[in-house]
UniProtKB/TrEMBL annotation:
Residues 27-187 form the Peptidase S26 domain. This is Signal peptidase I. It is found in: Membrane. It catalyses: Cleavage of hydrophobic, N-terminal signal or leader sequences from secreted and periplasmic proteins. One of its GO terms (molecular function) is serine-type endopeptidase activity. One of its GO terms (cellular component) is membrane. Pfam families: Peptidase_S26. Its main location: membrane. Belongs to the peptidase S26 family.
Length: 200
């Protein structure tokens, strides 16, 4: 067996990393930022957006300074439903956003009487008292009043009936003012998660 006296060639790596210029690296970074914004901006403006609760009108369900995520997409495919918590532009000043719960639906007749809410649905010919077991038992709704909801009109109330500016004061809410429904609570950490739905 003979050995060659020729020096051994240095083995070359199978793949060689191309050297990137500073300009190329900046271009790659700019592309990443661009595509991230391309995804994030439509989500922020057309699908979901953050909302911070201000005031006490939705206590005890929602406290002041809680951070919520609002679903803006669902109502493009279906109508709002009773019990859903919605964020909307205040009809009296559309620069302001309110958060309330949907109580009455279009076409229904609502009566507030003896601290309770009675709902009559002409389509079904039925009347029932709304079971609001998610509220404190001592909390009553007032003042006594009747509402006849027209097409695309909703009766919206704050859960804190003693301290809420809602449909009892400024009337039924037109659907066109609704931004979306509250679906997720991001703050405080103790309440982090999906917002529970109510059933009647």
């Amino acid at each position: 067996m003979t050995e060659s006296n020729e020096p051994k060639k240095k083995e070359q790596p199978a793949v060689e990393q191309p050297k990137k210029s500073v300009g190329r690296e900046l271009w790659e970074f700019a592309k990443v930022v661009f595509f991230a914004l391309l995804i994030a901006i439509p989500i922020r403006y057309f699908i979901a957006q953050p909302f911070i609760v201000r005031g006490q009108s939705m206590e005890p369900s929602f406290e002041d300074k809680e951070y919520l995520i609002i679903d803006e997409l669902t109502y493009q495919f279906r109508d709002p439903e009773r019990g859903e918590v919605i964020v909307f532009r205040f009809p009296g000043d559309t620069s302001e956003f309110f958060i309330k719960r949907i109580i009455g639906l279009p076409g229904e007749k609502i009566t507030v009487e003896d601290g309770k809410i009675r709902i009559y649905d002409p389509a079904q010919g039925k009347e029932f008292i709304l079971d609001e077991s998610y509220l404190p038992p001592s909390l009553e709704t007032g003042p006594e009043k009747a509402y006849a909801l027209e097409e695309n009109k909703y009766l919206v109330l704050g859960d804190n009936r003693r301290n809420s500016s809602d449909s009892r004061i400024w009337g039924p809410l037109d659907k066109r003012f609704i931004t979306g429904r509250a679906v997720f609570r991001a703050w405080p950490p103790s309440k982090f998660g999906l917002i529970p739905e109510v059933s009647y």
